[in-house]
Each structure stands twice: as C-alpha cells, then as structure tokens.
Amino acid sequence: MFFLLGLLAILSPNVTVAHPMPNSVVLLNIHGDRIDAEVQIPLNELQAAFGHAVNDSSAGLVDRLGPQLRTYLSQHIKPQSSDGRDWRVQVGELAVHETQNPINGTYRELTAQVQLIPPADADVRRFTFRYDAVLHQVVTHKILVSVQQDWERGQVADENPTQVGVIELDIVNNRIAPLAINLEAGSTWSGFQAMIQLGMRHISEGTDHLLFLLVLLLPAPLLLNKNRWGHFGGVRYSLKRLLLIVTAFTIGHSLTLLLGSLGWVRLPSQPVELLIAVSILVSAVHAFRPLFPGREAWVAAGFGLIHGLAFASTLANLRLDAGPMALSILGFNLGIELMQVGIIALVIPWLILLSQTAFYQYARVIGAILAGIAALAWVAERISGQPNGVTALVEQVAGWSPWLLAGLAVIAVATWLRGRLQPAA
Predict the structure, then answer these.
(1) How many Å apart are CA 197 and CA 332, to the nearest integer?
(2) Confidence at residue 423, expressed as pLDDT on a 0 to 100 scale
C-alpha cells in the first residue's frame, strides 16, 4: 500500500491533497571533531512509523516516551566513515513544538539534538549518512539534509542553511540510498573573516546600539552653561570628548562580550534588551538637558557593559569549541569596532560643523525627543513582548540611514555657510 501511494504521488503530480505530507529536516553544525545535528520530525509522520500515538497525544510526550524515542532515533541514524566504520550517535535533548496553520490546521513536530562523533582519525567532513527514521515505514516521506553552521567555511547559524541532499526511497530499486556528505575543506581564516562580517552586520542592524551612542554624542561638542548646554567648545574640545565617549563604550562592551561569550557572565535576554532601551532613554534626556555633564565616558562604559551582553548572546548561541570561539570573539569584536568607527567617522565631521551654528540647538532637542520616543516604545515592547507601530517605524527609518546621513551633511554645510556669510552681508 505504501509503495503504491508513493508511486501515485510521483506519477500523478496534478493530484492535490488537503494536507501535504511534511518532510523531516536534519540540520548539521560542523565542528572539528564532531557534528551537532538538529533533527526535526513531523509527529503525524512519526506516529505511523514509531507505533505510538505521538501525534494524537503529544502532551507530555518527552516525559512519557523519551527513552523509547531516543532508542528509536539511535537505531535509525547510522553515519559511517568512508572506510565503513560506524560513528557514535548520542541522542540528547528532545522537545515538541506545535504551530497552528490556517490551511493545514495543527502541526506538531519533534526536535532532537543529536551528536555524531566519528572515529579518532576519521574525516568529519566526509562520511556516509545512513538515516531512515520514519522513511523505513512511510515510503512517501523525505529527509532534507542541510548544513546550518560550518565555521571553517565561514557559514554561521543565523544564515540560511545550505542543503546538501535529500534522503528518500529509490522506488525503482526499492531501497533507501544513504547520502554521501562531502563538504569542501575550510580554514581558520575563513571562520575568522566570517566572524568579522557577522560583527559588522550585527552592529549595522543593531539600531538600538547605534542610537544610544549617537544620542550620547549629540551634546559632546557643547560647553556647559549653568546646567544647560551652551555653545560650541571648539574642534579640539569636541574631538577629545567624542573619542573619549566612543572609546569608553568600546571598552565596556568588549569586556562583557568576552565574559558573556565564555559563559562567565550570563543574563536573560529580556532584561538585557530592556536595559538597552533604558540606556537610550537616559542618553536622550541627557542630550535634552545635562544629567551627568563631564561624566559621559563613565556612563558610556557602564551601559556598554549591558550592550556587550547582548553582543555575547550571538556568539554563545554558536556553541563553538575553544579555539574557534577565541578567534570568533576577536573577529566579532573587530567587526563591531570597524562598523562602529566607520559610522561615527561619517557622522562626527557633520556633527562638529553643525554644532558651530545656531541651528544645532534645535537639531539637538529634536533628536533627543525623537530618541526618547523610540526608547519608550522599545521599553513598552520589551516589557509586554508585543511589537508596536513606533518600533516598526524606527526600523524602517533606520533603513534610510544613507539618505539621513546625506541630509545631515547638506544641512550642516548649508547652515555653516549661512552663518559665515551672514556677517559679511
């Protein structure tokens, strides 16, 4: 019956069904001495092969049938080296995920963390992957195998997985052919480069991180006048304060990036993200009216510690070995600094030029108010867990950053020239 159903599915492509058969997915994370795999199996397919009502009664499934599920997976996952030696398979954490689809209804999936360990002298990048869970009974089933993370090839887990093959029934020969995995050789340099690029992308997409720093820099070129922001303090004064703030922020986030990536300091993501939003609100109030004049560097370093914990979560989630992790911390931090310094270098000249004009008072106040609104919206979103229109608008506006920078340059030059030419008139 299963054979005929499979043949019908192939020979009759125009036949439609209300509930398309879902596939299993195997995501491979390549390490130097092992492969960490995540196996995703639809429970409605697993039920037919496993012999237990795992889909009809999925509540508490791992507690009820965890040992049997691990044994079942161990029996049907058989990687082998090219010389025929079996790899060691360890099935770890199991979890059940449930989603609602308006077309197909409720979809339940078993996720298993599986470690594939080759013999001591075997090549972890070249092996035969024998896998037939579900497929040994449900012949229409398919297993999609992809590489999710391969540090030596410069592929990290937040990118789209690279599919390396499909395991399915060979109907002509009535057999399940194993999948030959042959991954190209990588290098330490490729992994290091990927971490630099990841750091640059992380800070370029981190609107909240950049907004905190930019708003804190708004009053930096100004002198203090009776608990209010006064006039331009000069180019040397401005550059000294700007560089001091940027350096302090760098030291702060670099420290917790290191400690957090190594697992020595760890905080839940929600309070960290909430504190980042609060840091923007504090810097916005300070830009509007002095809260801590002359101590901006200390504030930047202190809040930098919080921002660094958010950076560290990205690396910690990669679960790299000691050597790659050390290089990743260096590369990731270098990428953050390159992008951060590049953005600041593009902004500072126009900031200094504009701060020499009377218009800067209005620009500073407007910038502080807008940043404060964005910060309050982020605070609300990160407390409630519900997105709002303001944060969506902020992210949309952040995509216009090249045009905003060009606008800042035009306004700075125009107002500066106007101020220069006005006395002569």
Answers:
(1) 7
(2) 56
pLDDT tens readout for residues 201-254: 988 888 999 899 899 999 999 998 888 999 999 999 999 999 999 999 999 999
Q: What is the pLDDT of residue 192?
A: 94
Query: How many CA atoms, within 13 angstroms, populate the side-chain half-sphere of residue 66?
Result: 12
Residue 391: pLDDT above 60? yes
- Do residues 277 and 208 make contact, with C-beta atoms less than 8 angstroms apart? yes
Query: Could you tell me which of 269, 303, 268 has the C-alpha nearest to residue 283?
Result: 303
CA distance 414 to 417: 5
Q: Which residues of 102-138 are buried (b: 16+ CB within 10 A; e: fewer)?
A: eeeeebbbbebebbbbbeeebebbebbbbbbbbbeeb
Report how far residue 355's alpha carbon sits from residue 400's, in angstroms, rounded to the nearest whole number.
23
CA distances from 185 to 37, 123, 125, 190, 196 (A): 19, 10, 8, 10, 20
Give every CB contact of residue 105 below 8 A, 6+ residues apart in sequence.
19
**Three-class secondary structure of residue 356 per DSSP:** coil
| Closest among 149, 186, 151, 183 to 38, alpha carbons compared | 149
299 vs 315: CA distance, rounded Å? 25
CA distances from 56 to 40, 46, 105, 138 (A): 18, 11, 13, 17
262, two tokens: 């190594």
Q: Tokens 């005929």 label which residue?
A: 4
The reported pLDDT for the residue numbered 399 is 86
380: exposed, middle or buried (Cβ count in 10 Å: 0-12, 13-18, 19+)? middle
The strands making up 24-30's β-sheet, listed across from edge to edge, are 88-101, 105-117, 35-42, 24-30, 143-150, 162-167
Positive or negative: CA dihedral 144, 97, 107, 3: positive
Is pLDDT at 14 greater than 90 in this prediction?
Answer: no
Q: Could you give the C-alpha distances from 43 to 22, 145, 243, in angstroms and in order? A: 10, 18, 56
In the structure, what pLDDT confidence band is assigned to residue 13 with cuts at 50, 70 and 90? very low
Alpha helices, H only, 159-295? 188-205, 207-217, 235-261, 269-288
Asked if 81 contacts 75 with a C-beta cutoff of 8 angstroms, the reply is no
pLDDT band of 12, cuts 50, 70, 90 = very low
